[in-house]
Amino acid sequence: MVVFRRALRLDHMQSSSTMAATAAAARLRAQGHTVIDLGAGEPDFDTPENIRQAAIQALETGKTRYTPASGIAELKQAIVDYMARETGTTYPASAVIVSAGGKQTLFNALVSVVNPGDEVVIPAPYWVTFPEIVAFCGGVSVFIPTHEHDFRLTAAMVERVLTPRTRVVILNSPSNPSGAVIAPEDIHQIAELCAARDLWLISDECYYRFVYPPGRPFSAAALPAALRERVLVSGSLSKTYAMTGWRIGYALAHPDWVAEMTKVQSHSTSNPTTFAQWAAIEALRGSQDSVAAMLAEYRTRRDWIVSALAALPGVRCRMPEGAFYAFPDISAVLEKTGLRDVDFAQRLLEEAHVVVTAGSAFGAEGYLRISYANSLDNLQRGVENIRALIERLG
Ligand SMILES: Cc1ncc(COP(=O)(O)O)c(C=O)c1O
Q: Are residues 277 and 154 in the same domain?
């Protein structure tokens, strides 16, 4: 009998709870049930036609071999041009690395800079993967709860948790799971704090394009050069262009940081998939109409679901300014029934085949994350089932 002993560095790493929700949905489907999956952080749209065609053309013209580990020069240039259009900042190619999704970008970024014992500041609620990568690095996640402050992170809140061991501050605006957007002035002040204390700032801008009017996207790439030097901007094509399965993300950062990340990548996955890189050029350079269309559709759904959730007994739900998640506070329901948010999510799954993710997975007990990257029809059925469960619980 062989006993498997995992490496110590994985002792504090948990499996992804959002991926577990997706797996639970797949299991129920395999048993023949109709599942309403409001758990997945994945656009329900197809990848736009022009991007699919670009991939087909890349395949047919032999774009199937290894590329440089950090990505093809043509895509790096497309990223540089895209960021220049969006933010007015022109990065050199040496400041760009393309990876297999934003997740790999962030993994590369953190393993390149976090030493055992280093503290990494993470506003909560947070995307589940941040603390897990920090744990893998032997670092210590220092959370800043924002739910008591309407999910608004300020520089003062960051300053309060900084210690001599702090190495990195992570921002994620718009946020997964809350959809909250950090004000540009606050990002500016947080970058100043990082500059004053010789810290690195990671700005995860995976949902950058999904900010609802009258709000406007803001990238940390637009910060003044002296502050930007210590900022790593992490971007992804996954959500913006409905390209989750293509696995293309990128970082813009100090060239020395990029060089270390490239080293890690060259010994792990090598390059991101070659034909996906070529298609990504079309995504960034081609028509952006599909992004505007998706944003408009998400906005209609957001407006509907937030008011529908807020109308449920014992539920409060703030209007998210970005991304595609509603994050209702169900603590009053839980208090009355003695359930935890995970129990509520589990019962919803078992009794109604509706998948949502418990807030505690994101460091915010008492909430649910509901992805509205799903049809209005399914959202309506999902909310009706939540209402029915609340009523059953009395
Ligand atoms: C906040 C955040 N960052 C990064 C990612 C990574 O996405 P990908 O690896 O598909 O680019 C996700 C995906 O859910 C996310 O929600």
A: yes
CA–CA distances in Å: residue 183 to residues 2, 164, 207, 211, 349: 54, 26, 15, 12, 36
Question: Could you give the CA distance from residue 179 to residue 182 in angstroms, rounded to a whole number?
Answer: 10
For ligand 1, what atom is nearest to the CA of residue 244? 10
Is residue 233 within 8 Å of 203, Cβ to Cβ? Answer: yes
Residue 164 in tokens: 């001599």
| Dihedral, CA of residue 132, residue 135, residue 136 and residue 139, to nearest 10 | 140
**Rounded Cα gap, residues 298 and 240, in angstroms:** 12
Are 73 and 175 within 8 A, CB to CB? no
Look at residue 2 and tell me if it is in a domain.
no
Q: For residues 121 and 169, is the Cβ–Cβ distance under 8 A?
A: yes
Ligand 1 mutation pick, 175, 205, 208, 239, max ligand atoms within 8 A of CB: 239
What are 339-342's contacts with CB under 8 Å, separation 24+? 339/393, 340/365, 341/365, 341/366, 341/367, 341/368
Residues with CB under 6 A from ligand 1: 41, 101-103, 127, 172, 176, 204, 206, 236, 238, 244, 249
Indicate which CATH number applies to the domain containing 231.
3.40.640.10
CA of 238 from ligand 1 middle (Å) equals 7
Q: What is the DSSP string of 319-352?
A: --SBTTEE--B-HHHHHHHT--HHHHHHHHHHHH
> pLDDT tens digits for 235-268?
999 999 999 999 999 999 999 999 999 999 999 9
Q: What is the pLDDT of residues 281-311, one digit of tens each?
A: 999 999 999 999 999 999 999 999 999 999 9
Check pLDDT > 90 for residue 49.
yes
CA of 336 to the centre of ligand 1 (A): 34
**Of 238, 264, 285, which one is at a domain's C-terminal end?**
285
* Spatial separation of the C-alpha atoms in residues 255 and 203, rounded to whole Å: 16
One domain, residues 112 and 154: yes
